Amino acid sequence: MSRLVVISNRVPLPDKSGTAPAGGLAVALQAALEERGGVWMGWSGKTTTSRERAGFHIHEHGKITYALVDLSRKDLDEYYAGFANRVLWPLCHYRLDLTEYARKDMAGYFRVNRLFAHHLAPLIKPDDMIWVHDYHLIPLASELRQMGLKNRIGFFLHIPWPPADVLFTLPVHETIMRGLASHDVIGFQTSHDVENFAGCLRREGIGREIGKGLFEAYGHAFRAEVFPISIDTAAFAHVAQNAQRHAMVQRMQKSLGDRDLIIGVDRLDYSKGITNRIEAFEHFITNNPGSQGKVTFLQITPKSRSEVPEYEEMQRTVAELAGRVNGAISAVDWVPIRYVNRSIGRNVLAGLYRMARVGLVTPLRDGMNLVAKEYVAAQRSEDPGVLILSRFAGAARELDGALLVNPYDIEAVSNAIARALSMPLEARRERWNQMMPHLLEHDVSRWCEDFLKVLAAEPGGSTGADQAA
Ligand code: ADQ
């Protein structure tokens, strides 16, 4: 079995006891690396103050070598906060209004990818399989190819891929497409993303589909397929079953009394539709006066990417909106929205999902959305809650027992809340049973195995045309 080399922007380094941080993706990739032996490389999370570039640290844990690169402030500003998070992230989430195409950020993005390639290349053995993760690292494979590496290289995109008209607003879209085409396998979350990608190839005559899921571009053949990411379903369900023992979960239950709980859990991000969601809840609660005092909406939202100005501003907007709604509707003994601005441990989170009659997951655009899957996995089989899910989340393609909504349509979401809260037990069980067996079978380990199987199997390679053309 070949060794595995994983590259992602951030690396979940095990703590001193060797325990990997919690989280399905980290656990699944760690397991795959333990089994095969290999390397996990990425940014160390540290910035160097010295003008000299990039320290490089190696840590060995069992069969895994962690290779961590420090970045300079300039690198981080341009590569991470700049091009990755102010260009590719909004672009892939269809937010052209938020993209900022600065030439220096583009240059920084390609420079850091080259830097990663130069650190990584000496660690690679000829039959290693390389698996690159996410939009921060699209050009890495083409850098490695230019250095002469012939290894199998796969790429998984965790976020959506946009249609051609959106992508082509990016001045360097051609280099980005060439970067993607340098892989042997590209994994997307949904068939819509693959269709969009194929459309981008076709539109400018960059490439074409030469077989089912097999493409050719720049003289290189590669696969582009759907691998919907998932969670560690059985383990998460188990954590949820035991969460009642947790003091914080008990306190929450007590403070809730016999009110129904609606839960929303998202990183603070404009793609998650948090303001639309609060407006939909406000619409529901003002138009259903009988529910006033009987329903609590808990929105848990840790800050993220505060170095990007849009996120700072959003922080204020969401807090003000929640405050305004509460000010207008609260009673002395009831606050309709509880807005919590921090990260919550997995055990408590699982317990809160389980307590909630409704999981309100309404992103405006989302690659997959693991919160939707976690909510389903945490439910009681004998009395499950109802998932309300945006049709624009990748998860909507799998979770057919959810109430699917258009998150831009405030009244429709409000109606879905009313429907979910009054749904009879039989209907709730039926819907949950449509989803849970699928999630148990298609968990994150299966996702990891499926991707690696395709990466190991497909020949791909040169189609004879000039790759440098
Ligand atoms: P994210 O945009 O981060 O991921 P998501 O898939 O929902 O979105 O994953 C978030 C994770 O963070 C979940 O596991 C959730 O439990 C956790 N989380 C969120 N808020 C939390 C809080 N307050 N406390 C503790 N944990 C919290 C990107 C893409 C997604 C894609 C994933 C995986 O944007 O579309 O599903 O990668 O590919």
Structural notes for this entry:
The chain has 16 helices and 17 strands. The protein is of the alpha/beta class. The protein is globular and about 70 Å long.
What's a concise summary of this model?
It contains 16 helices and 17 strands.
Strands, count: 17
Largest sheet: 11 strands, mixed
Bound molecules: adenosine-5'-diphosphate-glucose
- Helix content bin: 40-55%
Tell me the structural class. Answer: alpha/beta
Mean model confidence by pLDDT: 93
Low-confidence stretches: 464-469
Q: Terminal Cα separation, in Å?
A: 34 Å
Tally of DSSP helical segments: 16
Shape: globular
Q: What is the radius of gyration computed over CA atoms, rounded to a whole number of angstroms?
A: 23 Å
Keywords: Glycosyltransferase, Transferase
InterPro entries: Glyco_trans_20, Trehalose_OtsA
Protein name: Trehalose-6-phosphate synthase
Family: Belongs to the glycosyltransferase 20 family.
Features of the shown structure:
binds adenosine-5'-diphosphate-glucose, 11-stranded mixed sheet, disordered C terminus, 469 residues, 6-stranded parallel sheet, alpha/beta
Topology readout:
Blueprint (H helix, E strand, L loop, with lengths): L3 E7 L13 H13 L1 E11 L7 E6 L2 E9 H20 L10 H18 L8 E5 L6 H7 L5 E5 L7 H4 L5 H9 L3 E4 L2 H13 L3 E5 L2 E4 L2 E7 L6 H10 L4 H10 L3 E6 L8 H14 L7 E6 L8 H21 L7 E4 L5 H10 L2 E4 L8 H8 L8 E5 L12 E3 L4 H12 L3 H17 L2 H14 L3 E2 L7
Parallel strand pairs: 1-2, 1-5, 2-4, 5-6, 6-7, 7-10, 11-12, 11-14, 12-13, 14-15, 15-16
Antiparallel strand pairs: 3-4, 8-9, 9-10, 10-17
The chain binds adenosine-5'-diphosphate-glucose (ADQ).
The site of adenosine-5'-diphosphate-glucose (ADQ) has 18 residues, from helix 13.
